[in-house]
Amino acid sequence: MPAFRIGDHGPIIAVAVGYGLCAVAGGVLQHVFITITARVGQDVLLDLRGRIFRRAQTLSLEFHERYTSGRLTSRATTDVEALRELLDGGLDDIVSAAVSTVYITVTLLVLDWPMGLARLAAIAPVALTMLSFRRRTAPLYRLRSSAIADVVTKFSETFSGIRVVQVFRRERPNDTASAQLTPDTSRSADLPGWKWRDT
Predict the structure, then answer these.
(1) pLDDT (tens digit, 9 = 90+) per residue, 87-133?
(2) Torsional sign, CA 61, 63, 65, 68
(3) CB-hemisphere CA count at 13 Å for 126?
(4) Which label site among 1, 31, 105, 123 has the fewest CB atoms less than 10 Å from its CB?
(5) What phi and psi, each to the nearest 5 degrees, are found at residue 198?
(6) Residue 159, Cβ neighbours under 10 Å: how many?
């Protein structure tokens, strides 16, 4: 700004060009990152679905009688879809957060090491909070996954035998059975209070 006041526009033009180049470089790198992660993610998901399909065919008849086709379908679709969401959106956030954390911490240690140490000390409570959150949500996620598998199983069994259902007028009992598979979400905010409807 002092150079600009005396008529020297060179520094401010250089800064403006630098910002513009950084913006362009950031856009290009973001495009490359998204393209690469999308390709890698789709390759991983394709390979995973193929592994699930091939593995399911080699399992015994006893397993398939006990572990219904609906549950297999749920594992091959819902669970894989959750992994896809992580690879599509979460991976970018994780990498960005990790790079930002390392960059800010190193910069603070170089410029003001007491502040840098305070930054490092602040990471511990955040990490403990994340671990606590993960422990509390893991059972809920497993419960959700099992509920989805049960619902998919019920749909698969009902509509694969729809002729029998309609001939014997099983629509209402099936509707009741399907409703009983749905968790009581009115208390789902408190994990210990999460209850299934009585069957």
Answers:
(1) 776 677 777 788 888 888 888 888 888 887 887 888 888 888 888 88
(2) negative
(3) 7
(4) 1
(5) -65, 135
(6) 10
